[in-house]
Amino acid sequence: MKAWTWRRGGRLEPRGWDGKEGIEIPTAGEGELLVRVHAASLNPIDWKTMDGAHDWLLRMRWPRVPCFDFSGEVVKVGGAGAGGRWKEGDRVFGMIRGLPQLGRGALAEYMVVDEDVCAACPPSFSHVDCASLPLVAITALKAFRACRLQERSQDHPRVLVAGGAGGVGTVAIQIVRNMMGAEVVATASPGRKTTLCEELGARVVNYHEEWVKKLEEEGCSFDVVLDCVGDAKRCARLLKEGGSLCSIVAGGTQDALLTWLDDARVDPRSITMGVEVVLRSSWGGQLVEFFSGAAGLRSLCRRRGGSFFHVIGAGDGELMGVLAEAMGRGQVKPVIDSVFSFEDALAAFAKSREGHAGGKIVVEIRK
Q: Which of 6, 67, 195, 267 is most buried by a 10 A CB count?
């Protein structure tokens, strides 16, 4: 089959094109689905992983196929799963549970996924639409749950989304406004990104100005702050007494890393020798949080009687079900910056690295 792969320290390479040998179609085992991929979306973690972001934590097998987010059609139900929830021909979408590997990354014609990370594609949404949402929606839902925000809340909380025009930001605005009844303020660059956030229902402050000072002068404070761009330290000043700050970029915590290892069901044999022992120790956790900045951020939040959290998304069937229902009710819609062909995946990655996309970048694998 055709796929894009990479090796440690290398660049993406096409397999199955221009006379190059393709890779074998993977085989689905017990509890797994073989999916014919129609679309995959890019997230910054895709190219950060390629640049070695996880090399300290896990021992990888090479080559690997990139991309966490997929939407496609079930080709085969593995093991004795016939007669279960999924059947051949079902349209499914989701985020893989662990890290992309050969046969388990979405930038390929076929991939194997755990059946319990999938949700059924809502009928009125295309595969491109569906592929754009899983990782960002799972991350936003995990963040708001960590901050104790509830769906259909009657409290009408005030929420700040720092980085409102990115993949997580655009979905977070919709989730917290339409599903949790919040008043939302977002930071964004002027122009199309501001317009995008306003269309989603957020009040926007100019990211390139002294926006923290501006909000302080207005007397604005927030029950919850979601930091999508690494502004957590500045954002802490805007917390209400007892509020919660969650970052998906800054301040990686011991709890977030251990939760991800458990949620992703990482094979202990693939964890770099000694790392898990350090992560699960009290002194190791303190060391991680000192160097990540989490300790300092937690201290800033505590001064306001608040809490600090860091979350990492992983494939999650329950949260995918929440997302699919919200899409069906019109509470969450895809926000897509651009769509690239399978052959132009390198251009899609180049655009993602630029960091200027408003919404998601999607690669359409099968039309």
A: 67
- Shared-domain flag, residues 49 and 140: no
What is the total count of domains within the chain? 2
Helix (H, G, I), strand (E, B) or coil at 60: coil
pTM (two decimals): 0.96
Contact 37, 72 (CB under 8 A): yes
CATH number assigned to the domain comprising residue 85: 3.90.180.10
Contacts 24+ apart (CB under 8 A), 281-287: 284/254, 285/253, 285/254
For residue 275, the Cα-to-chain-centroid distance in whole angstroms is 24
Query: Using one digit for the tens of pLDDT, what is the confidence trace for 332-352?
Result: 999 999 999 999 999 999 999
Which domain range does residue 269 map to?
136-310
Domain-embedded: residue 316: no
Which residue(s) pair with 71 in the sheet? 39, 93
